[in-house]
Q: What sequence folds into this?
């Protein structure tokens, strides 16, 4: 029995206080028969390449129609691919944008060509009036 160092009187033992047991970790989860999938597997969307190309060619056709009507071929490609995309693909927005911008680019190119030919032919149309007024 331990003794008190100052009085040499035996000290009664302190009651034992039990230490609570440490929390045991939860058991590992049961193995699944299938491997875990990191993301949900859904139906994959079909590629929308026609609609995307229609939109790109339509926008390029509108931009290039200001350059001597050079965007006409791009606009026609945008129109054709846009109509194909509307029939075959689910991305209707891009296909419709390609179709509309294709028509706008083709129309702008045609108007530019008409104005260019009218400007080029205007001296020839004024020639008879100039010749008749001189005599």
A:
């Amino acid at each position: 029995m331990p003794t008190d160092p100052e009085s040499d009187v035996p000290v009664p033992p302190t009651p034992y206080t039990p230490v609570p047991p440490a929390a045991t970790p939860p058991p590992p989860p049961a193995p699944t028969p299938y491997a875990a999938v990191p993301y949900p597997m859904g139906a994959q969307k079909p590629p929308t390449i026609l609609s995307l190309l229609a939109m790109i060619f339509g926008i390029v056709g509108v931009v290039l129609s200001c350059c001597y009507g050079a965007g006409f071929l791009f606009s026609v490609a945008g129109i054709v691919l846009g109509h194909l995309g509307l029939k075959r693909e689910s991305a209707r927005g891009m296909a419709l944008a390609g179709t509309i911008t294709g028509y706008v680019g083709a129309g702008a190119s045609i108007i530019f060509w008409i104005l260019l030919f009218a400007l080029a032919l205007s001296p020839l149309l004024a020639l008879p009036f100039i010749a008749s007024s001189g005599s």
